[in-house]
Amino acid sequence: MPLSVLVTNQPSITDDNVPQPSLKLFHEYYRATGGQAYSPFQHQAQAFRLITKDQEAFMVAGTAAGKTLAIAIPLFHKLKTGRIRKVLLMYPTIALMEDQRLVMDRLAKITGLEVGQLQGGMSRTKLISALNKPVILATPDEVYWFFRKNVKYSGLLIYGLALVDEFVLDEAHLFNGLMLRNFEHLWQRVKVLTNCLGKSPRLHILTATPSDDLKRLSGAQTIPGKSKCNDVRVEFRPCGRFDRADQIADAVSAALASGQHHKVLVVCNSARMAHQLFEQYKVSDTSTIPVEHRLRFGKAKLGDLVRWLEKTSVEKELVEEVSARLVREEDVVLADVPGGTTLSLSLQDIVAHTTEVLERQCWQVKRVLWEHKQRTGETLQSLLSNRPLPCCIVTAVHNCLERETEVEKQQAILDEWLADTVERLSNVTDETIRCEAREFAALTEAFVSAGLDEQLAALLTKRLSFEMKADSAQLPARSLSHRPVYLRWLDWMAEKDKAHRLREAVKSGLESGELDVDCRHIGLWKGADVPIIVYSGSMAKQAREGLINVFADLDRAVLISTSAVEVGVDFHADTLITEECEGNSFLQRFGRVGRHGAGSEVIVFVSGDVYDAMLDALDQTEISREEFSSKILTTFPRRTYATRSQLLDASHYLVNEQLGRIGEKLNAIPDLVQAKPIAEQLRTASIQLNFGLRSTAPQITLRDGVTKDPFYLLRYVDDEDLRPADSPFEVARATTWFTSLIFQRAQFDVTVDLEETLKASQQVFVLAGNKFQICSQPGVGLMYLNRMNTYFGQVGGWGKWRQGNFLLLHGDVYLSRSDRETPHPEPVRDREQNPLFIPNQTYMVLWGWTDSEAIRALFEGAGIADWEELQFDWDRLKQDWNKAMVILENTTGACFAAYKELLDHVGLQIQE
Fold first, then answer.
1. Residues with Cβ < 8 Å from 559, sequence gap 6 or more?
2. Is the pLDDT at 686 greater than 70, yes or no?
3. Using CA of residue 478, residue 479, residue 485, residue 490, what is the dihedral sign?
4. Cβ contacts of 162 within 8 Å, gap of 6 or more
5. Which residues contact 655 (CB under 8 A, 6 or more apart)?
6. CB within 8 A of 877, min separation 6: which ones?
7. C-alpha to C-alpha distance for 857 and 642, rounded to whole angstroms
């Protein structure tokens, strides 16, 4: 039986007792947006006064409270009048930053200021340009990217940050655990930088839910705020996990059938469920979707589009020009070219791609040459896990390697071989090589003529066929006519007047129904003539851009999404249908309703335990918004996080060392002084820790640019769909799209290949008293474990609470999987038979711990159960071989922190 409660809201009262310049700018902003000039809310007015007096603000308010303007208005006025020179506003997500860019641009236009934006991968010139703007937008991740990039970028950023007078951290409640700890280090770095110029930067924090950790970032006065929302009816429905999708769909249909709810927002906890709902209940007919949205989001087959343009009054030359440009926009690699097509490949392009591939392979060989010195009982091929390409390189230089005993000289042999191979290939007499798809035999012959053996030449040809783009001008006419192209591309395919004619021609085809388009992420809800839109973080950025605006523009619509809508663009809904989730996340979702008009409704599908808890908590039929939020936070599930890690602190110590005298000041901070011994050992052991504000775990990149956790994606994707990684931040690349997997059942259980992982281990962290020691040696984990097993034999067998059971290691983590129908573990390999591994990981092995219930009790006792920064390999315990619990980390330092907690817990058990 549903549990219903009315959540009431008493809006904040207004307050005009503010500095007049801020009030004037506040009114100008609303008039510029076409609205009327409101008086500021009480919490906005308080922020105006504090910031005008050069004090910090810590604002606590939910969505629709006007937090952004409360901070931005007085800051822009201070910039305009020259009281301060520069402001940096930081946002936890790119989506939120891009949404807030609209607000900042409006204020900039009114005040005559300029807005810059920092983003990863910027050139030096663009970085300088952005830093010179008085208003800078960024995510902390992007600032991190520059600090770790190199000295050139770090120096520029240091100077730019040192000039900033006031910083703003928006939606700060999204910073938790080690992510927040990383931000503390970033803020400490900023304060020291600015202090060097005799300045004291101010930090303003905006959050929906405060925490003691956030409050420690500044000594700001807390400003409580209220949302501008109406009353909302909330209904809790108990529901099992397996029928939840059907019940959500029924709730959507009922809301649409009632005719009272024009905007329905559905928020799922997983992108998989969101996309499944969309695909199951979408009707592909787009005829009732406004033409302007079909023009922006519609895709038509290239052949259909060209035929329609030829049928209209658009001149033939323009059609041919646009057709050729559309073909060039396609990302066609050699492997995609129709069989039998003859192509002329540029020797220069071949040399460039070949050099890049061989450099990566030679680097792998160089690394194992050093390992081989330590593990003379193994062959180079076994240390390379029999990867075909590097093994072929070893064969090519085998005799030369045998004559040398010093690793440096062996590595020099590889450099010489690479240089000679590239030079011989560059000296091929023909500037182009004519090849026939899809074998490209002439390319293989060119490699053989450059001195490569046939096997290595064939492997290189296969690798290049997936990495080299084909020249579209050489493809057969109409060979790509089946490929879909976006209609929005037409806007920049020709000069302005010609583009207008193209757009009008396409528009007429859409209006008449003669040109068929697929909007891909927009359709109609089955059984109702209402548009349905899907929006999730598992869509490429370009694909989801603007979809929220479509939802906001339509009179009636259904938006199916994930936590991607919790923070970001400003929109509202009449009805929210959502799953039970973490309390803070639910309150963010809840803030999307009740913002415009009365009669909003929320339907929440919850587990039986949460339903019972809500029955006890909600003992009345009406409750204030503040009290409701409090009960949600205490009743709904909570996320748990690690809070500190000396290994994480040590990584910051090493980064600070790159900053010269400023770094010395930073490293004199007590927390970093304590991390110095570990940092020095990390440097001595040449351990390169992954560095990032959020997750640092490498991912698998899908065809559309979306990245996914390998333990998730490899349950669905076969070896044949995997390609080698392009960077150390990737495990592999997949040739599939995320949406092609949503209805597939998981085929595999994915686990850590413990034997190969222990062989590949490079360092072991050992706690001796209160000090850590790092022992470095190839295969050190396997050696350490063998010594422990010998010790167990001497003391009468394995003991549950012995500290030696807990191994903290560093190295590459190899993956295996077993088919769920016929469980037998096999290494995960890409299509070239390279084994997949997660590079440069710190991880834990709990040797002998094989009972799931006992392990969960252990984790609960140690306080690490369900840490968001950890990944537990529970599937390993289903196996009968090499039984042990393995823990990986999503954020650098998490395993180190967990290791300390486990050893402290074990010590207590021994004392008892």
1. 263, 264, 265, 266, 532, 533, 534, 535, 547, 548, 551, 565, 573
2. yes
3. negative
4. 193, 194, 196, 197, 199
5. 147, 148, 663, 691
6. 850, 851, 852, 855, 883, 885
7. 18
| Separation in Å, CA 676 to CA 739, 787, 898 | 47, 30, 20
How far, in Å, CA of 487 to CA of 286, rounded?
14
Helix (H) or strand (E) holding 621, with range, is: none
Place of tokens 């920064």: 869
Token representation of residue 820: 């769920």
CA of residue 300 relative to chain centroid, distance: 30
Q: What angle do CA 526, 532, 535 make, to 5 degrees?
A: 135
Write out the two tokens for 450: 């450059």
pLDDT tens track for 765-796: 998 777 889 999 889 999 998 888 888 888 88
Say what the pTM is.
0.84
pLDDT one-digit tens code per residue, 358-375: 988 898 888 788 778 776
- CA angle 183–642–663, rounded 5-degree value: 35
CA 105 to chain centre: 26
Alpha helix ranges (H) inside 150-268: 151-162, 177-195, 212-215, 244-258
Report the C-alpha gap between 700 and 714 in whole angstroms.
Answer: 9
pLDDT at 475: 81
Cα 28 to chain centroid distance, Å, stands at 37
- Give the 3-state DSSP-derived string for 674-702, with helices as H, strands as E and coil as C: HHHHHHHHHHHCCCCCCCCCCCCCCEEEC
3-state secondary structure of 368: helix
Judge contact between 611 and 3, C-beta under 8 A: yes
pLDDT band with cut points at 50, 70 and 90 for residue 622:
very high
Q: Classify the phi-psi angles of 21: left when phi > 0, otherwise alpha if psi is within -120 to 50, otherwise beta.
A: alpha
For 854, which DSSP code? Answer: H
Higher pLDDT, 125 or 586: 586
* pLDDT exceeds 60 at position 876: yes
Contact 519, 294 (CB under 8 A): yes
Instruction: Give me the helices (H) in 814-892, please.
Output: 852-862
pLDDT at site 240: 87
Determine if residue 834 is left, alpha or beta; phi over 0 gives left, psi from -120 to 50 gives alpha, anything else beta: beta
| Own/partner pairs, 546-553, CB within 8 angstroms, 24+ separation | 546/296, 546/297, 547/297, 547/521, 547/522, 550/293, 550/297, 550/522, 551/263, 553/290, 553/293
Q: Which of 273, 148, 9, 84 is nearest to 689 (CA)?
A: 148
Higher-confidence position of 430 and 121: 430
Torsion of the alpha carbons at 692, 694, 699 and 703, rounded to the nearest 10? -100
At 500, phi and psi to the nearest 5? Answer: -65, -40
State how far the Cα of 847 lies from the Cα of 866, in Å rounded to an integer: 20
pLDDT of 626 over the 90 cut: no
- Whole-angstrom Cα Rg for the chain: 30
How many whole angstroms separate alpha carbon 744 and alpha carbon 362? 38
Where would I find the beta strands (DSSP E) of 215-366? 221-224, 232-238, 263-267, 282-283, 299-301, 342-346
Lowest-pLDDT choice from 3-7, 198-202, 570-574, 805-809: 570-574
pLDDT digits (tens, 9 = 90+) for 245-297: 999 999 999 999 987 778 999 999 999 999 999 999 998 888 888 899 999 89
Predicted local confidence at residue 151, as pLDDT: 46
Token readout for 664 is 């010395």
Of 567, 632, 634, whose CA–CA distance to 602 is shortest?
632
Domains in the chain, please, with CATH? Answer: 9-224 (3.40.50.300), 232-289+519-635 (3.40.50.300), 299-319+484-512 (no CATH), 334-474 (no CATH), 742-911 (no CATH)
Confidence check: pLDDT of 757 > 70: yes
